[in-house]
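Worked Example 4.2. Consider the chain below.
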Amino acid sequence: MAEPSSSVPPRESAGVPPRPVFDRRRAWLIAAMIVTFMLINYADKAVLGLAAVPVMDELGISNSAYGLISSSFALLFSLSGLIVGFVSARVSSRVLLFAMAALWAVAQLPVLFVASVPALVAGRMLLGAAEGPAASMSMHALYKWFPADRRGLPSALQISGAALGMLIAAPVLTWLITDFGWRSAFAVLATASLVWSLVWWGVGHDGPYGHEHAPGTGAHTPAGTPGATVRTDRLPYRRLLLNGTALGSIAGAFGASWAMALSHAWLPVYLRTQLDMTPGTAATLISAVSAFSLVLLLSVPPVLDLLHRRGLSRRWSSGAPQGIAVTVAALAMAAFPFAGGGTRLVLLALAFGGHVIVFPLHYMTASAVAPPHQRGAVFGIVAATGTLPGLLAPYLTGYLLDTAASQSAGYTQAFVLSAGVMTVCGLTALTAIRPERDARRLGLTVTVDPTS
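Applying the procedure from the previous section yields the following structure tokens:
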């Protein structure tokens, strides 16, 4: 009788489930839907800034009052991102993203009926609550369709929805505001959100990479990592969040979000009132900054992902670039108020567009120190704390404008203060993010002998 085979049994027989099958066509369909989701998301955020001058003129509000309206967007933004991050472990991404987009449509309606400061505040608060989880949960949904070693380009594309949102929305919304009144822009965005939510309900099912590490299923070998398993038990969130990589990722997101909050709330107003640009010229410049951001998003993260696959550590392929990007943007933020001509425009583009690569990269570094079944919650927490500048920067800038000797001096103070905050955040990210080291300390990766 033949002796039993001494060959290694299949992984399934060892209690390890098979790897999910990568459905390329469906994955990229979901990616396209999520890019569109982010495009609408950022157009929603930007519309108030683009309409700021006519809104302030019609309602007779001060810079501080406008800053307060803009900051009201962030009152529930971080809290909702935090709550939905935990809910994502029990509710499908299909349901979560559908509900968010439907609420975006509802949030645009108050000003269509009553144009007043309370209506603007109510609409922005509801919009902030519905958009708080958008970036983290859409990234979580995207990760469910792509294995770990194929997420660089999809992550960059997801964030590129922000740049596309400004690239496309700035001229289109400015045209609507100029030719049809500022309310028309809000109405168009409400319609776009509603249409997206209905299409998503039909196609936005969860992918196969969202459950392969669920607690109690045993270890699983990630794609492209022969002989490695990951922990499937639940780790305390204090350990997941109080390591250098998570804290550095939060710092990078905080610095980048500070520049983004200023861009959405005050850049259009600055271009109109301080550089004497027409609405069309200001929209063109904002689109140019967004095009610069888009080029960075579509080139830098995929190259860094390729370098990582060829052996570069996550510290240098994802962590250090975050710190460098925020620090360079900070230096440009400090310098451009004192420059003139073409130099000012180049520095302005670096200040408001050069930080953008932080957003896909900080999700990748945070993901490296979170078990997949806790990833949604970690993303929600990181996003909630990293995006707090949306609550602080717009109102603080308005306050400085109203209390400074002149508006020009107020803007200079606001930009220099922003540069200081961003510099601290950039240097923190540069020095603190070390995904491989922190993953080992958390016991997330355990190397095993595949023949044992």
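The domain at 21-209+228-447 is CATH 1.20.1250.20 (Growth Hormone; Chain: A;). The first strand starts at residue 228 and ends at 230. Compare this with Example 4.1 before moving on.
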